[in-house]
TrEMBL record:
This is UPF0340 protein CBF29_10675. Pfam families: DUF436. It comes from the Bacteria. Belongs to the UPF0340 family. InterPro entries: Antibiotic_NAT-like (IPR028345), DUF436 (IPR006340).
Amino acid sequence: MNKTIDLDKLSRDVTSLTEDVIEKSNIKAGELFVLGCSSSEVIGGVIGKNSSLEVGEVIVEAMLEVLENYRINFAVQGCEHINRALVVERTVMEAEKFEEVSVIPAVHAGGSCSLAAFNRFNDPVEVEHIVAKAGIDIGDTAIGMHIKHVAVPIRPKEKFLGEAHVTALGSRPKLIGGARAVYE
């Protein structure tokens, strides 16, 4: 069941959510932030069944504005129909030495946020594997495969965006050594 959603409120909520996760993850300028999102879930539908490009555009635009202010790089995960490939700027792909793959996201093969990012980025490319410092998962899309080892759960202030469940991940360096190792 799709619900009408206030797009201005959605934009404000995305901005607040993104600021919250940036603060809690300690992500820095130049690091990579990943978004996984089901616009279907945001509007009260079932993941992959009720995509809304308009909702995807609002989410990507609001998140991009915040990330650009912090000079944090952005990757947007596609859905399972494009094997969870990610949209990034070509400059990010080249700097990180990611491998480009051949696919262009569509609303029902990639998802609304992936397509919105592809349309909005200056020079978008699709890549298959990234290692992000932190990210937000809107609608239980499984971003964990894209987060730097060791992934650490973040508890955002808001647990829902529209009707979608929200989780977030940060990362920390591995703790290695034995009984005499010092970590702090």
